[in-house]
Amino acid sequence: MKRNSHFEFIIAGQGLAGSILAWYLIKANRTVLVIEDTSLQSATSVASGLMHPVTGRRIVKSWRADEFIPNAVKLYQDIEQELNKRFYYNTPILEIYHDHGNRNDWMNRSVTSGIGEFIGTDYNADELPKSLNAPFGALELKHTGWLNATQFKMDMKRWLEEKNAYSEGTIDYHSLEKNETHFQFHDLTFEKLIDCRGYYSMLSKSWSYLPFNPAKGEEIVFTSDADLWKDFIYHNTFKIIPSEESEFRFGATYTWNDTSNDITSDAREKLINGLSSLLDAPFTVIGQRAGIRPATKDRRPFMGEHPIEKNHFIFNGLGSKGISAAPTLAKEMLDFLLHAEKINPEYALERFTFPGY
Questions:
Q1: At the N or C end, where does the chain have fewer CB atoms within 10 A?
Q2: How many domains does the chain have?
């Protein structure tokens, strides 16, 4: 089938944000073309995909977890059903205690910080897998899971191709022609342009004023015959995610002063040391990969229309919580695009001053 040359929406970037927004727009019977520059490393392709309802050392509920997580699970399962694919797994997390004080903190916070619904079994050390170095025990977290983001991206690409809604290439923003009704780029005409290119959006003139705070992450893939429960994710400073039979992912690091997609020996050493302290069993590292998380200074996404470039939009900056947040926020972006519903001021572009060109 010959692809259309006119579209209502062009989405630049087929990562998590672009894929889910395209899904909603197509389901709303809008004409969409997702353009992906495959020469660039997508953060989605290396994302751990963890859906964790509790944030950091403070042990508090993650931002809008009560809303984000069930919405995300439903959407991923709906997409799985239509595509007849599997990429989302309802998997509990074992939160490994650092010491007795940390264990007490978890118990106290489970009562006082509103995370009680996510608290499962509290395990003593002798109840855990023998290969797990967890002398202070661990706590099961419920209503958690992980998205195989690489598989999701591949399956969504095939679905978009079937809908004649995917193209490999690059939009040269300097070559865009624009009049009152549409954009023109070579043989393509379109009405609205949405930037979902992750970290790469900050390199464009249009969005350079936004305070991105990209964070590089690296992980390793390893094999082991360790005695581990295969249906759990293990988390302390890093996380072990079962990937395939006897194959696991471990990571990820955070680096703010390196925006290359190159893997590094420093990260590899740090990850191997972390894994050695957590896993009391032999393992073999079989891979390493890196990606740039599209994080922001205030840890809130960028959503809205450019202040002076009419019909040029951004849906970006979802950061490490993107797996759980993207489905809900993409629906809000859809309502903004189609029904002019206002974007929450917490993440609307109007919270920043545009300095002009």
A1: N
A2: 2
Q: What is the pTM of this model?
A: 0.94
Same domain membership, residue 205 and residue 264 = no
Q: Give 3-state DSSP helix, strand, coil % of the chain, rounded to 5.
A: 30, 30, 40
- Per DSSP bridges, beta strands 188-195 and 183-185 are antiparallel
Compute, in degrees rounded to 10, the torsion defined by CA atoms 262, 265, 270, 276.
Answer: 120
**Across-strand partners of 138?**
96, 123
> Tell me: the pLDDT tens digits for 79-128?
999 999 999 999 999 999 999 999 999 999 988 888 999 999 999 999 99
Element (H, E) at 77: helix 65-83
Which residues make Cβ contacts (< 8 Å) with residue 192, sequence separation at least 6? 8, 9, 10, 311, 312, 313, 337
Domain final position from 258, 278, 293: 293
| CA distances, 346 to each of 119, 166, 301 (Å) | 29, 32, 9
User: How many Å is the maximal CA-CA distance in the chain?
Assistant: 69
Report pLDDT digits (tens) over 259-286.
888 999 999 999 999 999 999 999 999 9
Q: Which amino acid does the sequence have at 135?
A: P
Of all helices (H) and strands (E), which one includes residue 32?
strand 32-36
Average pLDDT over residues 208-230: 93
Report residue 32 as tokens.
Answer: 């969409």
Rounded to whole angstroms, the Cα distance separating 21 from 100 reads 44
CB 71 within 8 A of CB 327: yes
Structural domain span for residue 136: 92-143+215-293
